[in-house]
Amino acid sequence: xxxxxNKLENSINRLPLSILIVSLFAIHGYRKGSLNKSGAIxxxxxxxxxCYCGPSFAFILLSFYFSxxxxxKYKSSIKKKIEDGHAVGxxxxxxxxxxxSLTATCLSIIFxxxxxxxxxxxxxxxxxxxxxxxxxxxxxxxxxxxxTWASELGILSKGxxxxxxxxxxxxxxxxxxxxxxxxxxxxxxxxxxGISFSFCNYFFNRGYPLELEQIxxxxxxxxxxxxxxxxFGGLVGSLIDSLMGATLQLSxxxxxxxxxxxxxxxxxxxxxxxxxxxxxxxxxxxVNFLSSLVTAILCGYIGSFIF
Length: 307
What we know:
The chain has about 300 residues and is mostly helical. The chain has one domain. The protein has helices at about 1-30, 35-50, 55-75, 75-80, 95-100, 100-115, 130-155, 180-205, 210-215, 220-250, 285-305, and strands at about 160-165, 175-180, 250-255, 260, 275. Helix 3 (about 55-75) packs antiparallel against helix 8 (about 180-205), helix 7 runs antiparallel to helix 8 and helix 8 packs antiparallel against helix 10. The longest helix has about 30 residues, at about 1-30. It is globular and about 70 Å long. The chain starts with a helix and ends with a helix. Keywords: Membrane, Transmembrane, Transmembrane helix. One of its GO terms (cellular component) is membrane.
């Protein structure tokens, strides 16, 4: 109980700084065009909750935000010509923010109010529940980052992707399409989150020496395990997203406009349409949310075998 109140006191002390930092980044994202007004407001609230948990959580969130925002803007005018739903400049609204952060925000709340831990060292034998939450948090952002990197870079590959369910070539921008560049990008996106979290583990936990003494661990083993888990989350999360996209998302080709459409409402009267794959059950935001949720749970479970 004493540990819980000490942790709560530290969290409350971090709140003013968290509000300041998140406010600056939300304003920065809005001014730079990475977020629209609703996206900036929703990012503000999810950011405060995440940063309230501590610097490690905040650092992972910001690592995902900046890397994905940069790649979303990268050659966005070319992506717009290929995929009709791509917004030039990469502005995210509140739906996109929540679909990529809701699971992690809930995990952050659980870590803050339902555990007594202040450090982010993962050791299932010492504390299974908290370790599961931390591994799930890593898995969530590894999935989101890996999928974003794969989507934003894979669409720029020279060759046509293949559909994950059939192996047949499909137009660029098709939901469930795989390319070598995209797969490599998903691995690198997960790896980036793993390296970021390992950095946090090494530098941000040193303020809690008493807790560190109680946990049996080595930084080398932690780093290797975190990177393996995050890389797994990036690749597998992206594949889960692709599988859902190929089956539960609609992909249509406008033959005359040569763009992929993900919504029948975007079909124009003059369009000559060819069905590529999927059914109109989920949209892209729902797929992102579900794939990151599944990956988070999966990584929470798999973490028990490698930590």
